[in-house]
Amino acid sequence: MSSQLPTIFNSTFLTSGLSKGFFEFITKVGEARSKQEEDRYVTEELAYLKNKLNQPDISTSKMKDYITRLVYCDMLGHNVEFGHIHAVKLVQSAKGLWEKRVGYLSCSLFLHETHELSIMLINTIQKDLRSSNHLEVCAALTALCQLLNTEMIPAVYGLVEEKLSHPKDIVRKKAIMVFHRLFRDKPELIIHLDEKFRQILSGGDPGVLGAILCLFIDFVKEDPSKYKDLVPVLVNILEQVLDRYLPRNYDYHGAPAPWIQVKIIQILGMLAQDDEKISSEIGQLIVHTLKKAENGVDCSYAIIFECIRTLARLHPQVLTTLIHKPSHLNPLSVITRFLKSHNHNLKYLGLIALSEVDPVWWVEGEWWGEEQMRIIVDCLEEKDDSLKRKVCLYY
Which residue of 15, 140, 193, 296 shows the fewest CB atoms closer than 10 Å? Predict the structure, then answer.
C-alpha cells in the first residue's frame, strides 16, 4: 500500500482526470528506455483492455476509460482494431456528455467514412442532432465532419441544415463545417444553399466568420465570376476587423482577428485577378492592411504574406499606381523584411512571396537592388536545403 501512495497523491495524477491504471500506464511508457520496452508495455496493456472490453455489463464510465487508453495505444502506432466496435457502443450507450464526446472522438480516429461500422452511428447521430443540449449537437456535428458518407447523407442532411439557424454560434459554425466537408465530396448537394451561405456571410457574425470564409474560399476557387458581387461585403468585414469592431477575444497577441484577415485577403485576391474594377476597389485597402500588420507580432507575417500575394494578382495598371504613389513606400518592398530575417521559415516565405511577384515589379519603385540579390545568392550557402531548393527552382 505504501508503495502506491506516491502515485495516488501525485499532483499530476490528481489533476489529470485519468484513472489510476491509465496514469500508471502512461508513466511506464514515458519512462521506457527503448522502443522494445515501450512496445512490451503497450502489448500488455492491449491484452488487458481486450479482456476487460469483452466482459459483460461494463459501466459507461469504465468503458470511457478503456477507450481512452485504446486511443493512446493507437497514437503509438499499434493495432487496436478489436476496440473499434466498443467505441461505437460507447457512443450508443453514453449516459453523460463526457462519455459521448470520448466515444465520438474515438470513432472519428478509428473509423473512416467508408468503414463498415460507420453505418451503426446513424441513429445515435440523428438523436444527438435533435438534442436540446447544444454540446451534444456539437459532438454529433464534429463526428460528421470526419465520418459523413453516402449512406448517412439522407438521414442527417435536413437536421444539419436546420442547425444553420441555431441560436448558438458554435452550432452554426460546426454545421457550416459539415457542409464544407459535403461540398468537397458532393458539391451538387449544397447548390441550393448558396443564398443561405451568402446571408450568413453578410450577417458578419464573428462566431461563424472563420468557418463560412473557409467555405467561400473553395467556392471562389471553383468559380470566381459567380462571387464577384461579394467584394463590397468582404471589404466591409475587413474594414470592421481592422477598426477593431470584433470582440477582443478574437485578437491574437494584439493583432485583430488575424485568421479572418488572411482568409478575406485570400478571397479578394482570387476575385481581383485580371479584373481592373475589383483591383481598384481593393488595392488601397490591401496596402492599408499590410501597413497595419507591419508593426504587429509574428502572426502578422501571415497577413503581410497574403497581402503581397494579393497585390501581385492585381491588375497591372492598378498595381503600378500603388507602387508609384508618393504618399507611401512601394508596398512590395516589405518582401525584403522576410528575406533579411534570421528565421529560416520567414526567409522561405520571402522567397515564395518573391516568386509570386512578376519580375517586372521587382525593379519598379526602386526597392530591388544588390542587397536583395545578395541575400538570395547567400541562400545557396545556407544549411537549410529547403532554402537552396527554392532558390534553384524559382531563380
Answer: 15
